[in-house]
Amino acid sequence: MLNMKKTALGLIGGVITSLIAGVIMIRFDPNVREYFFPPERRLVYSLTVQKIRDGKPYQDPFQSAGQEVFENGYMFRFNMFSSEAGYLYLFNEGKAADGKIYFNILYPTPKRNNGSAHIATGQQVITEENTFGGKPDTEKLWITWTREPHPRLEAAKTSAFANDGKIKDSQVEQNLHSFLQEHSAAAHEVVKDIPNKQTVIIGRGQTVVSLLYLEHR
Predict the structure, then answer these.
(1) Local structure of residue 147 (DSSP, 8 states)
(2) What is the pLDDT along the chain (217 residues), one digit of tens a residue?
(3) Which of 188, 183, 153, 191 is nearest to 41 (CA)?
(4) Cα atoms in the Cβ-side hemisphere of radius 13 Å centred on 106
(5) Which long-range contacts (CB under 8 A, 24 or more apart) does 135-138 make?
(6) Which of 60, 90, 137, 167 could lock 107 by a disulfide, CB 3.0 to 4.6 Å apart?
(7) Is the separation of the CB atoms in 141 and 92 below 8 Å?
(8) Does the N-terminal peptide bond of residue 108 adopt cis geometry, omega within 30 degrees of 0?
(9) How far apart are CA 82 and CA 123, in angstroms?
(10) Which letter does DSSP use for residue 175 in this model?
(11) CA-based Rg of the chain, rounded to a whole angstrom?
(12) Helix-strand-coil percent breakdown of the chain, rounded to 5?
């Protein structure tokens, strides 16, 4: 009986020691703490849109949360920032006549942020101007934030930079598509803040991916 009591006391002591060590790790190690209590991440974006008539700017540019139906020929740029430092990307997904999915990168670009996806907390980034064109359609755009650089996203960026914004490596495209599909399934909330003409994406964890749509005619 004495030996059994000593063994039981030893086990209890071991459990208590482990619990204390775990509490210390959660308190002082940010990576461990985030694993158990992932903080809320917020990505905010808006559009600055310029109407075009007869090939020329018409009226003043306006801000949008992205809910309008835009006209072909309108020019636009994204304004984005994150609640904390990380790596931010914006990809445009399209479909060719043969049904093949392709991707372009809208951010970063060699002319924006020195080509780096890394942003500081609250740093506002602005894409280059893009134009709605082609037949009436709904554009699919992927806004992506990661706490650390991810090799699939960086490979997509490198490929796009080498091809005027277009990702032409089929394996890189496939890897990017898988990454976006996988991470967009994680729970997140998208809030249209119409009064402030912006959209807020709220997620948790090391990666936040959201698919957004822009309709044009």
Answers:
(1) S
(2) 545 555 555 556 665 655 565 555 445 555 554 556 778 999 999 999 999 999 999 999 999 999 999 999 999 999 999 999 999 999 999 998 898 999 999 999 999 999 999 999 999 999 999 999 989 999 999 999 999 999 999 999 999 999 999 999 999 999 999 999 999 999 999 999 999 999 999 999 999 999 999 999 9
(3) 188
(4) 24
(5) 136/72, 136/216, 136/217, 137/215, 137/216, 138/213, 138/214, 138/215, 138/216
(6) 90
(7) yes
(8) yes
(9) 7
(10) H
(11) 23
(12) 30, 40, 30
Burial of 52 (0-12, 13-18, 19+ CB in 10 A): middle
Task: Quote the tokens at residue 206.
Answer: 């090391």
Give the tokens for residue 73. Answer: 């020929």
In the block, residue with structure tokens 């992506």: 144
Q: Which residue matches tokens 């158990």?
A: 36
Stated length of the chain = 217
Amino acid at 121: T
